[in-house]
């Protein structure tokens, strides 16, 4: 690809003292804009998560530039050095290994620091796995909740899932392939097996796949199969009705407390059903 001839911004040099946030492909190296390439080619310095990944782009598009590593282990120390570069009128681009920097990737702290110091920040948008999976899912996509990677601790995970699970918004999660099966089991426990879901695998790559339609079916699909490649999970929101308006997490806690205090499950469910104006069986089944 000829970068110069294909870009309508072919003569636009990066501005000095500007931090450019540059989106890069999430798999398919063709998914990079001429504007992004122009900036990467012409900035004073590229701060990249892994120099090997950025070199792949430079090699495909036949250019080179000065690289410095900027990842979760060194970003704290490197931030002030990059701010110094920007203050000395250098232009700096930040890229991650894939997709948008700062979305579950390094960048947030540097961008926050730069904006707070009055440094100009310009984003050259590019692919993001979350929005790519969302729009591919066919689920409502104008309002959604993006949770990224859930915390590792069971209590914290459950708390988030209970909270977002009752929303009518589509939910997007990132997960590593070797933890997907465990997550699906948790999702079934909290959302029920009938909840509509799409597991998007290897987006933009040769073996891109979208596995659905509900949690039970996806669990069944992966039984006896290794989960390979990169995974984004999209879960359809609930249809709002009377029974989904309450806080399931708090309710489950209260139910446990009542049973521990000596009430039978039936008595406790009846009491909470009346108190919250919801069906007794729904509460009963939460136990
Ligand atoms: N900054 C990236 C973005 O804008 O999407 C996300 C980086 S995060 C460290 C990596 C996670 O994104 C993966 O574990 C996976 O959940 C998701 N992901 C990245 N590329 C993907 C792809 N090609 N297909 C499916 N999911 C992908």
- Helix-strand sequence: HEHEHEHEHEHEHEHEEHEHHH
Shape field: elongated
Name the CATH superfamily classification of the largest domain: Tetrapyrrole methylase, N-terminal domain
Give the terminus-to-terminus CA distance: 60 Å
Quaternary structure annotation: single chain
- Helix/strand-derived category reads alpha/beta
Mind explaining what this structure looks like?
- With 287 residues, the chain is an alpha/beta fold.
- It contains twelve helices and ten strands.
- It has helices at residues 3-6, 34-42, 51-60, 75-87, 108-116, 129-137, 154-165, 180-191, 215-222, 248-260, 265-276, 280-286, and strands spanning 18-22, 45-48, 67-69, 92-95, 120-124, 144-149, 170-175, 197-201, 209-211, 231-235.
- A hairpin with a 7-residue loop joins β8 and β9 (209-211).
- Residues 1-9 have low confidence and may be disordered.
- S-adenosylmethionine (SAM) binds at residues 26-27, 96, 98-100, 103-105, 128-130, 174-176, 200, 202-205, 230-232.
Search tags:
single chain; 287 residues; alpha/beta; Cobalt-precorrin-4 Transmethylase, domain 1; 5-stranded parallel sheet; 5-stranded mixed sheet; elongated; binds S-adenosylmethionine
């Amino acid at each position: 690809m000829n970068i110069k001839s294909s870009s309508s911004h072919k003569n636009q040099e990066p501005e000095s003292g500007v931090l450019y946030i540059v989106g890069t492909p999430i798999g398919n190296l063709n998914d990079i804009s001429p504007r992004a390439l122009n900036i990467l080619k012409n900035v004073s310095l590229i701060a990249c998560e892994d120099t090997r990944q950025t070199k792949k782009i430079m090699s495909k598009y036949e250019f080179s530039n000065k690289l410095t590593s900027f990842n979760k282990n060194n970003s704290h120390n490197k931030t002030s050095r990059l701010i110094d570069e920007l203050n000395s009128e250098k232009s700096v681009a930040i890229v991650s290994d894939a997709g948008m920097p700062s979305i579950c990737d390094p960048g947030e702290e540097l961008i926050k620091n730069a904006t707070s110091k009055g440094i100009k920040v310009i984003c050259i948008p590019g692919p993001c796995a979350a929005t790519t999976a969302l729009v591919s899912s066919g689920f409502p996509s104008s309002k959604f909740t993006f949770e990224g990677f859930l915390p590792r601790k069971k209590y914290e995970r459950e708390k988030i899932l209970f909270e977002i699970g009752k929303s009518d918004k589509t939910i997007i999660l990132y997960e590593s392939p070797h933890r997907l099966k465990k997550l699906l089991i948790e999702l079934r426990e909290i959302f029920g097996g009938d909840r509509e879901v799409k597991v998007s695998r290897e987006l933009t790559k040769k073996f891109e796949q979208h596995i659905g339609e509900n949690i039970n079916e996806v669990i069944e699909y992966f039984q006896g199969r290794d989960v390979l490649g990169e995974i984004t999970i999209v879960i359809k929101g609930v249809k709002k009705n009377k029974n989904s308006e309450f806080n399931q997490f708090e309710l489950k806690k209260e139910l446990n407390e009542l049973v521990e205090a000596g009430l039978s499950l039936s008595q406790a469910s009846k009491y909470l059903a009346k108190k919250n104006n919801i069906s007794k069986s729904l509460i009963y089944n939460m136990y």
